[in-house]
Amino acid sequence: MALDNVSQLSVSVRYSETDAMGFVYYANYLIYFEVARTTALAELGHPYWEMEKQGVLIPVLRAHCEYLSPARYGDTLLIRTTRTRLGHARIHFEYEVLREGEESLLATGFTEHAFMSPAGKPLRPPVDLAKLFPGPRP
Description:
It is built from 3 helices and 6 strands.
């Protein structure tokens, strides 16, 4: 569900996503971020596969996650994704991961991306896509 520049997605933690301690393995949070990001873009009318067909790529330049409290097998997580623009050809997504029905944060993070052509050249995003990213960020 997308509201303004914030999207939300529910994800159920699968057993295969946990480690020997029963916690969600730390690298899986970056996968959750990717699922939330691509789902948000699709809900906004810009599925990633369609962007690629049009020659617009948004590779990750930086990724970061802060782990605050563990998620476990069987949890349903709510991932909130906020979109902002950093400049003409860079965008930023911020993520909050909560256990559904609770207000305490389990993790927070961000990813930064550049708009690029398939040849790896920076490019300005299409106007309709750029409108989805308020900014630039302070």
